[in-house]
Design a protein that fits this description.
Strand content: 35-45%
Order of helices and strands: HHEHEEEEEEEEEEEEEEEEEEEEEHE
Mean pLDDT: 87
Structural class: mainly beta
Radius of gyration: 24 Å
Helix content: 10-25%
Distance between the termini: 51 Å
Strand order of the largest sheet: 13-14-15-16-17
CATH superfamily: Glycosyl hydrolase domain, family 43
Largest sheet: 5 strands, antiparallel
Number of helices: 4
Low-confidence stretches: 1-38
Shape: globular
CATH class: Mainly Beta
């Protein structure tokens, strides 16, 4: 009996090992190639903790409230940043209020700084921050002129690149979204094209604009893809992410897409390749890498960073939670598969009927295990006269806010 029991134990152990090996083999076979090829350091990432970054938020409030100039930035959205070779930081914004801010109380007696409802509103702007972190001046706005009647440009991700491959001279490349005025539900404009602008260094003079992907031939505007909401450098490539406006007038879920460009060649349309669902190809119809139209998906503006071997994507949550809540996904490859959504968090919002949107990470301010992320704030009804009135009576509503994240 003892011998039989020992044999059963040995056989059981062997069977357990065999089953484990079989299961491991099945999982390995079932695991998509991109996950297997993620490389060392790839694994699940989620938000461990977050804190409000009052220092950077306060700096934009200080600069926006400064009444010594009448032609500078007082509020904007579409917040992106780029560290320049001389240490300055270039901040890029979409729709921007200029003009003068008046101290509190406002005309109705509230304790808010305010601006006149006739204050200039431009489609884009750029603000320079010193190496020490102090905002100093607004470049002449709009920096990127409208391409035509009823059209405008919103700047998104940017990179410092050689003027041409192998050149020692550097320039700034800024990805632009071109939109065209449209009827509801296209209250934020119809997606039209992805462009790349070239700015000189160190003067940041606009030298030219190149169309990378014209979407006017796509009849269904909800399937038009604009690239540049975020970009990640990895090895010899820059991966440029984009989104569609599948639900143009609502919160997510829309779809995420990805293209790649040899590093340093963003302004060459022929160098771009798009993920078509199975391979990288030039002039391909991009295939979505994230988004099921319901629980999983992104806003048209989201952000991606690379932590070790893991890609982490931050976006507003799906459904009504997307008005206040930021969530994330992770993957071992820019093409996915993307896992999530993972742990969400709700950053601070000012009082009133406001919403958060456009989360963007800022590697220029991050380090030591910290990840700085901004989010824009706007009045919920962003299209009506009441919205403009509310943004004018309280200028703090239409400005970026910042949090510092730690991932685990």
């Amino acid at each position: 009996m003892p011998d039989d029991a020992g044999a059963r134990r040995r056989n059981g152990t062997g069977l357990g090992i065999l089953l484990a090996l079989v299961c491991a083999a099945v999982l390995l076979i079932a695991l998509p190639d991109d996950d297997r090829e993620g490389g060392a350091g790839c694994g699940a990432r989620t938000v461990k903790s977050w804190t409000a970054d009052t220092k950077v938020t306060g700096e934009f409030a200080r600069y926006g409230d400064d009444a010594t100039r009448t032609d500078d930035w007082t509020g904007g959205d579409g917040t992106h940043s780029l560290r320049l070779p001389d240490g300055r930081v270039l901040w890029l914004f979409s729709d921007t209020y200029l003009g003068q801010v008046h101290g509190p109380p406002n005309p109705v007696g509230e304790s808010y700084a305010w601006r006149d409802t006739s204050a200039p509103l431009v489609r884009n702007s750029a603000v320079l921050m010193s190496k020490s972190g102090r905002l100093e001046r607004t470049l002449p706005a709009p920096l990127f002129p409208d391409p035509g009647s009823g059209q405008w440009r919103w700047p998104v991700a940017a990179r410092v690149e050689p003027r041409s491959p192998g050149s020692a001279e550097q320039v700034v490349r800024v990805l632009l979204w071109t939109r065209t005025t449209g009827q509801a539900p296209w209250i934020y404009g119809v997606p039209t094209a992805t462009e790349v602008a070239t700015l000189s260094l160190p003067g940041l003079r606009l030298e030219g604009v190149t169309t990378v992907l014209d979407q006017r031939s796509v009849a269904d505007a909800s399937r038009r893809v604009l690239f540049g909401t975020t970009a990640v450098d990895d090895g010899d490539w820059t991966y440029v992410f984009g989104g569609d406006d599948g639900q143009a007038a609502s919160r997510p879920t829309s779809h995420a897409y990805v293209a790649r460009v040899p590093r340093g060649r963003l302004a060459e349309p022929g160098a771009w390749e798009y993920w078509d669902g199975s391979e990288w190809a030039a002039r391909a119809r991009p295939a979505a890498v994230l988004g099921d139209g319901q629980r999983e998906g992104v806003g048209s503006a989201f952000t991606v960073v690379r932590e070790g071997g893991t890609y982490v994507l931050f976006t507003m949550a799906a459904g009504t939670e997307g008005l206040t809540t930021i969530t994330s996904y992770w993957a071992c490859s820019p093409t996915g598969p993307w896992h999530g959504p993972t742990r969400s968090f709700s950053p601070p919002l000012p009082p009133g009927e406001v919403a958060a949107y456009n989360p963007q990470t800022h590697p220029t301010l991050s380090g030591d295990g910290r990840l700085v992320l901004s989010y824009d704030v706007n009045w919920l009804d962003a299209t009506g006269v009441s919205a403009q009135a509310n943004l004018s009576r309280n200028v703090s509503l239409y400005r970026p806010r910042f949090v510092t994240l730690r991932l685990t």
